[in-house]
Design brief:
Blueprint: E1 2-8, H1 12-24, E2 31-38, H2 41-49, E3 56-63, H3 69-79, E4 85-89, E5 92-94, H4 98-107, E6 115-119, E7 133-135, H5 137-143, H6 158-169, E8 172-182, H7 194-200, H8 203-215
Length: about 230
């Protein structure tokens, strides 16, 4: 079974579209979607109304305040049981064939475990970085410190640290055919919304945290979610 960790708030249309695209593009696979929702009953109701096929389950972890995407992703990880694990967001659209392509790339690692970056339609993961990705649980435990995100990042930079850790471990691969479209306002894919503007001011703080952690060699100075 494959676990998809979805952190979301304030985007019921986006969250629903993301989940429906997951269901539509993963025939033949058992999928567990763990949606960590912050203070957004509309999204909860939308996801609860979806009737997935038999091989797909949708679980919701709800918070009545804004815990932030980093904590939400880790809370979803704590509840997940599948392997590998996919880091997802409410502005993603999964394209046909993405999962088979990603799993094929994952199988090429020695032992069949590691980190596979998706083709988000904007960044070349070979020369730049992958904004979203699939990770083996063993990789998370041994090379991510047992988490999928870090609380110090309130806006962006989880992907940057995860990519750096994967490259350092020699377990990084980018899969061009794992197409998972990232509909981001910065590229003009959609209009900037309230969730964007609420978090935008936290970007400089997160950038400073990343640069500090990078200089320190990305220490595991936190409690693991899984071991």
């Amino acid at each position: 079974m494959i676990s998809v960790l979805l952190a979301t708030t304030g985007r019921p249309d986006g969250a629903e579209a993301c989940v429906r695209s997951l269901i539509d593009t993963t025939d033949g696979h058992e999928i567990e979607i763990v949606a960590a929702i912050d203070d957004d009953l509309e999204t909860w109701n939308r996801l609860a109304a979806i009737q997935p096929r038999q091989e797909v389950s949708i679980r919701v972890n709800f918070a009545y305040d804004y815990r932030g995407s980093s904590k939400a992703w880790n809370d979803a990880l704590r509840l997940s049981t599948g392997d590998p694990v996919v880091l997802a967001a409410d502005d993603l659209e999964f394209q046909p064939g993405w999962l088979d392509a990603a799993l094929s790339t994952l199988s090429e690692f020695e032992g069949g475990w590691g980190f596979v970056g998706f083709n988000d339609g904007h960044w070349n993961g070979d020369t730049d970085f992958s904004t979203h990705y699939l990770m083996s649980r063993r990789f998370i435990a041994e090379h991510m410190g047992g988490v999928v995100a870090w609380d110090c990042y309130k806006h962006s930079f989880n992907d940057r640290e995860a990519n750096a850790r994967a490259r350092r471990a020699g377990r990084y691969a980018w899969c061009e055919n794992a197409r998972v479209t990232h509909n981001h306002w910065i590229f003009g894919d959609r209009a900037q919304d309230g969730t964007d503007t609420r978090l935008l001011g936290l970007h400089p703080v997160s950038e400073r945290a990343f640069l500090y952690r990078e200089a320190q060699g990305f220490p595991d100075d936190f409690e693991p979610v899984i071991t």
